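Worked example

This section walks through a single chain of length 81. The input is the sequence exactly as stored; nothing has been trimmed or padded.
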Amino acid sequence: MPGPDRPKMPEQQIACSICRKEIPLSSALTPQGAEYIEYFCGIECYEEFMAEQKASESNVSDIPGAPGVPSAPGKSGEPGK
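Given that input, the structure is written out below as tokens.
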């Protein structure tokens, strides 16, 4: 605990995952359930991140044969189908 003889320790800083602004770790927003941790300086950067994630997911869903996407018609791999 800082006393009159001890200087207060500086708070750890972390960069926002979108704008790279340095923010105190205690103030950072982090999405729950993420596979890895992302830090955001505010709701605007978090919303931009979520929009980018949604756009990248929709790009994957346009690829025939991608996980969760049915194969193109006539491409079942079985003869005569």
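What to look for: The CA atoms of residues 46 and 52 lie 10 Å apart.
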